[in-house]
Amino acid sequence: MDRKDMATRTRVFAAVLAWCAIAGAVGYSGVLLSLPRPVLQVILFTLTAACLTGYFAVSRVRGDIDALGTRALIAIHLSRFVGAYFLILHEQGRLPTAFAVYGGWGDIITASGALALLTLPMRWTRVRLLVGVWNLYGFVEICFVVATAGICGMRDPDSMFELAKLPLSLLPTFLVPLIIASHVVIFVHLRAAAMGARSR
Questions:
Q1: Which terminus of the chain faces fewer neighbouring Cβ atoms within 10 Å, N or C?
Q2: CA distances (Å), 135 to each of 29, 70, 131, 170, 189, in order?
Q3: Angle between the 59-68 and 176-198 helix axes, to the nearest 10 degrees?
Q4: Global pTM?
Q5: What is the pLDDT of residues 125-166, one digit of tens each?
Q6: Distance CA 71, CA 170 (A)
Q7: Rounded to 5 degrees, what are φ and ψ at 118?
Q8: Do residues 186 and 135 touch, judged by C-beta distance below 8 A?
Q9: How far out from the chain centre does Cα 93 lie?
Q10: Which residues of the chain have pLDDT under 70?
């Protein structure tokens, strides 16, 4: 890894770490507990839009993210093993079935797929196809989780109480926007790779 790549990775890591720290401080403060549950979805969508706007509108940001490569973006999804924690909370009666069971297993499947893909070389055409299938599944799954959380929160605000406090408050304020944005960027990378292959 040359000095330029190291500097790029350092900038991205520092930005993500700072975002995570701010999200953690917000969760620790307890301010989210006093907000109506649907506000969490508004925060999530706003942060996701900010991520994607930064990527598509700011060339420096886009360059830094693209320089990381698809493999690094896939690695983000290892965090989705958090789905196992959803299942634990469901067993304790602290999360509703519609969100915890279906979303939990969906996240575990997505994270397991990411782990498998990280063992394969990204340059193979067949691997790119697998990445595309996995990315589509993971994107649909996370959208389902977000929608389900919103529906459960509107029907019974108290059922989603865990998402308003640490550690799960990091989902709407940090991890889920990052996950959704990474899915979109992976789609962009796959399209660019396919166009490059056709132009040869």
A1: C
A2: 34, 11, 6, 22, 11
A3: 80
A4: 0.93
A5: 678 889 999 999 999 999 999 999 999 988 998 899 999 999
A6: 23
A7: -70, -15
A8: yes
A9: 25
A10: 1-2, 122-125, 196-200
